[in-house]
Structure formats: C-alpha cells, structure tokens
Design goal:
Length: about 300
C-alpha cells in the first residue's frame, strides 16, 4: 500500500547556517498512529512545519496522500489538519464561529451537523457560544483540535497536543485519537509525554539533532531494545555480589536488600533457572521477587545517549 506521507531526502538549513534537518527519509502508513519523539530542538516541529507548508525545505521531496506539497500545494494542504503547540485563536470569537471559520478557509461548504459532531466529540458543545477568551487552557486546546478537524482531513498532525493539559483531559484526547484512527484518519503526534506514545502509537520514530535515528513498530522496538529485570528482595542483605555469580548480569540495590538481574528478553535461555540454582547453592534466600520491562522512555533515553 502506498504510504499516505512520503518524505524523501529532506534537509533544512536556515540562513544563519543552522541545520535543523539532515537527510530525513520517512514513510507514514495510511491509518496508523505514528509518534515522533525527540528532545527539544531535535527538529520535530520543523519537520511538521515543512510537511504542512509553513516552512520551506532546503532540499528533498514530500507527498501527502499522493500530492506533492510544493507542486500540488492546495490539494496536499486540504488533506492535512494541524494542531500546533501554540494556542492562537481570536479571543473575541465564539467557539462555534472559530471552528466554522476554519472550515471555510479550506473552501468547504457549511455543514453545521458535522461541526456539531466535532464539538460534541471533544466535549465542547456546551461551550459553543462561549468566547475564546473565557476558556481554560485545556478547553482552548480542544478548540484547536476542532479547528484542525473542521475541514475533514485524512491526515492529522498533533504537535505536543496535551502540553499543559490535566490528566483527565489527556485521557479524553487519547480516546479521541483512537476514535479518529478507527474512522481512517492517519495521526502523527509529537510529544514529550513518553507514556502518550506508549499508550497510543503503532510505530515510533526518534529524531535527534535533525536526524531520524530509528523508526520501529512500538512493540518490536520494546522487544528488541527493552530490558527485562528480575528483582529479588533478599531475606538478608548482601554486602557484595559473590564471585561465583559473576557470570550473571547482577547489581545490588536498596543498600544490599535487593538483587537485580538484567536479561535479554529475546534470548531463548534467560538464565533465570541457573541463577536460582546458584542462589540456592549459596544459601541466599529471598522473600519476594518481581519482574519489569523497560518502558518506551527508557529506550528513548538510551537511544539518544548512544548518539551523543
């Protein structure tokens, strides 16, 4: 299947000489939720701005739903909805007027039923007559999403969509995003909330210093790069790890009260059985144990550190 967004050899160098993007090649699949992660200044917003026609690339080619974003700008832009980081709206307009005006900017005919549905989906219907200036930051964020959806795009960019939003509203937005995907909308989000990507994304891309350093299915990325740890809560604390256990990747924690074993989750032989036998032979008893796996945040941090 042809990707809904195709980015080929895109570079961006500003007049100051600063290179924001270097050799970006990326395909976004139709109907997926793609999370673009990276530290501040990595190039996330620059890349989104180029795709949306706000910033010009220095070189390279991009198509959106089959339309070249330069040659077929109008057709490409019609396919895209953008929720930017900044909350920029007319303070004296009502919610209803703001969303309808945004729809009109794309040449779409009036469709009050559709706009009503968008506002209801975003829990904004009871605020439709409220002036923008009276809304909370979280409600303004919802209106920004409604504006982006007003012209019925097939691609939706969410640039830090839940920045400054409370936990309850963030969960509501996650549910909304899943609902949009079920209706066939392709969603690309940037976020500083790693749990957001872990919760929602089908695939994850990591960008660092203007370069894409990895693109992977979220589950596969966590399987390949994640670590699993077995933590044993000891009956008696250890001052040091016995020499006979040097073949295992062990470390002491909690002032010697915990023994932490890190192992490869892809390996057929995790070594846990051998470790348990060795502990038994040494007379090291434990009162409890639990296992944990690396989160997406752990993986992201390790990837970025590896490139520094």
């Amino acid at each position: 299947m042809q990707p809904i967004i195709s980015i080929k050899d895109v570079n961006k160098t500003y007049a100051s000489g600063f290179t924001a993007l270097q050799d970006i090649n990326l395909d976004i699949k139709r109907g997926e939720i793609f999370a673009l992660l990276g530290p501040n200044g990595a190039g996330k917003t620059t890349l989104i701005s180029i795709i949306c026609g706000i910033v010009n690339a220095s070189s390279g080619n991009i198509t959106a739903d089959g339309h070249d974003i330069i040659r077929d700008y109008r057709q490409a832009r019609e396919k895209i909805g953008l929720v930017p980081q900044e909350l920029t709206t007319d303070a004296f307009e009502s919610v209803w007027a703001t969303v309808n005006f945004s729809r009109g900017l794309f040449g779409k005919p009036k469709d009050h039923a559709y706009v009503e549905k968008v506002l209801r989906d975003l829990s904004l219907w009871n605020k439709k007559d409220a002036k923008m200036m009276t809304l909370s930051g979280g409600m303004k964020r919802r209106v920004m999403i409604a504006k982006a959806l007003s012209h019925e795009p097939s691609i939706l960019f969410l640039d830090e969509p839940t920045a400054g939003v409370d936990v309850e509203l963030r969960r509501d937005m996650w549910a909304l995003v899943h609902g949009l995907r079920e209706r066939g909308v392709t969603i690309i989000l940037t976020t500083h909330y790693i749990e957001e990507a872990e919760e929602m994304a089908d695939r994850v891309g990591v960008i660092h210093e203007g370069r894409i350093i990895v693109v992977e299915d979220k589950t596969e990325m966590m399987a390949k790069l994640g670590k699993r740890q077995l933590t044993l809560h000891l009956q008696t604390p250890l001052a040091s790890i016995p020499e006979t256990l040097s073949g295992f990747k062990l470390e002491l924690a909690d002032e010697g009260n915990q023994l932490v074993y890190t192992f490869d989750i892809q390996s057929q032989d995790t070594g846990i059985t051998q470790l348990m036998h060795s502990l038994q032979n040494l007379g090291i008893d434990y009162k409890d144990l639990h296992s944990s796996q690396s989160s997406l945040e752990d993986i992201f941090v390790s990837l970025v550190r590896a490139k520094q």
